[in-house]
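**User:** Here is a favour to ask of a fellow structure person. Please take any protein you like and set down a full record of it. No explanation is needed for now; the record alone will do.

**Assistant:**
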Amino acid sequence: MVRDALSKDVETISAMAVNIFTNSKMEELNKEFEEFLQDDNVCLLVKEVDGNLVGFAHIELRFDYVEGCESSPVGYLEGIYIKPNYRNKGYAKELLVVAEKWAKGKGAKEFASDCELSNTESLKFHLKLGFKEENRIICFKKNI
């Protein structure tokens, strides 16, 4: 079953999220996810199997420019994760379908996402689920 996340789910979601947000700490993620539960422009979903949380999706509405999109707001898949033993069972697709419905219900006409250039697994996932690659970029920074 896919359902909205509850406050009691936050620690489990954070434990999964550190696998994709590798520069974040559990405490930071716990705080962020708690705040997301109070934000109408954020959707936090969980996939539950036999009473266990096995995956989550974090979706936000973006009102600023989103690469390749022509409308606003845009539903944006900020993160999605399924525990390794539960992959390739269609659970991520289930999360994505609910996420897209949520975004559409909030007025979005487009749904977007991103991944690191080196994350070929994520690239394959996005393409398999109907996303179209829009652009590739390398970002630069310099201290002055």
Notes: The chain has a mean pLDDT of 95. The longest helix spans residues 91-105.
